[in-house]
Amino acid sequence: MLIISHSEDIDGILSAALAIRKAKKERESYSLLLMDYTEYDLLIDKIKNSKENRIMILDIGMDESKSKEVIEALRNSKSFIIWIDHHIWENSTIKEASKYCNLIIGKNSATFIFSRIFSNDLFSRKLARIAEDSDFFKNKLKISKQLSIIITYFNAFSKEKLYWLAEYFSENTKLTKEMEETAEKIEKEIEKTSKEAEKSLKVIEIQKKKIGIVELPKILNPSFEGNRLINEKKLNACIMLFKNEKGYEVSIRGERALELAKLLGGGGHPNAAGAFLTTDKIKIIKKNILLIFGSNSKTL
Prior knowledge:
Mean pLDDT: 92
Structural class: alpha/beta
Shape: globular
Number of domains: 2
């Protein structure tokens, strides 16, 4: 079995962990691919060319700009594909994709959906609780904040450790003491980095709405930073740019986040969404902000 899951947040790592646990329990061989939305072509290639009998795709929403390619890959795939997600898809895409794979889209986290369908035991419910706390910004559990910090750090500096993390949580529901201490050290580093990065924040006022745009290093978690800046700077929405070698990962939090993400070719949730833009296209962000919020703007 090939497990393909989202690399950048708790839901992706923990839903992968439950899939690994299921494979181990059934004594089924498996391989794991953790990916982000800049690697969507890799997902299409794996769907189209994998020789595995079964593929599980977890916590990865549809990139509507590539939906035709995805549907074509699903149509031609020789694997039985289960796709579990909770992001917002176009109805027409759901209809087409459902013809060629077992597509399960719910309102809860992918970890929660997986746990209810395939395991529904105490272990899986504990992981689902952590994923729900993080994915829906409840922030009631200490472990969800610590784990988010660790995952963001690994994504920035040591992606191979994410695979170890998924394996670890296939058998554990708590962080080790060493992992907790690591999270505390990283958090102190993040606080310094966050305040320095905030200096690049620009605020655009449109129709009495304040939209923040800020470039951030990968060590910073978009949900933490976006919600912090919205609260502290009294913003209606915050657009965060994370530069990599291909361009910019765009994370949006706040009002009309999904609408803006869709205009940029991305997707997600109503108040938490994202997209990817090549360097030469980054200027279109301001144009699309104007389309969403109105035409009369000024930079504060």
